[in-house]
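We were asked to recover a plausible sequence for a given structure. The inputs and outputs are reproduced exactly as logged, with field labels preserved.

PROBLEM: sequence recovery
POSITIONS: 210
GIVEN STRUCTURE:
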């Protein structure tokens, strides 16, 4: 091919050529492979969110109510007019601990929640796969709850004075145990309390992915 200035322009045989009419182009996925999901891109449905504070507090209140009623009924035959306050507390301590263990560990291992949580529509799941928690995790959570119970007023006052704690998506400067998110009432055993319908929706999404 000759240009108007008399110079001959040659094509580069090794360069790219334009596709002719009627030639089908390869699909975009074949030309540009999609990047593989990294650590910051979760695969599959997200885990159910934590149940609301009001729902969880009502569940705790119901558990305490049933525990005290059961302990009182069991200790009532051994209490009379001559029984001192210290003896009454001693009689209540044994049945209360037994009921708490059966409710928080045994019943939760069988049904996925204690009595108060069942009434309030809450289930306890294991992180990070949303499965049913094992017996050892429930025992560790129960012991942790007993040791933390006297400090609950202090944590509540600190949360009120310092404002809301960082959420799950907020970077935290300190490495936290598995399942912890920096909240004042975070479960250190890698468990989470979720609503029953949220857990059902999550399991349906896992069973029938889109």
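RECOVERED SEQUENCE:
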């Amino acid at each position: 091919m000759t240009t108007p200035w008399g110079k001959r322009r040659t094509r580069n045989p090794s360069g790219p050529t334009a596709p002719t009419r009627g030639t089908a182009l390869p699909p975009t996925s074949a030309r540009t492979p999609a990047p593989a999901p990294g650590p910051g891109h979760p695969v599959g449905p997200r885990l159910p969110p934590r149940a609301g504070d009001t729902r969880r507090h009502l569940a705790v209140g119901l558990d305490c109510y049933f525990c005290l009623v059961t302990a009182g009924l069991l200790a009532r035959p051994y209490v009379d007019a001559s029984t001192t306050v210290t003896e009454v507390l001693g009689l209540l301590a044994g049945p209360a601990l037994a009921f708490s263990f059966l409710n928080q560990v045994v019943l939760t291992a069988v049904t996925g929640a204690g009595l108060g949580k069942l009434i309030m529509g809450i289930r306890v799941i294991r992180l990070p796969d949303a499965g049913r928690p094992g017996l050892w995790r429930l025992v560790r959570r129960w012991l942790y709850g007993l040791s933390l119970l006297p400090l609950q007023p202090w944590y509540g006052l600190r949360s009120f004075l310092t404002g809301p704690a960082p959420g799950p998506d907020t970077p935290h400067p300190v490495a936290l145990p598995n399942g912890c998110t920096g909240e004042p009432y975070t479960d250190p055993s890698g468990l989470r309390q979720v609503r029953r319908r949220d857990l059902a929706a999550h399991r349906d999404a896992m069973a029938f992915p889109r």
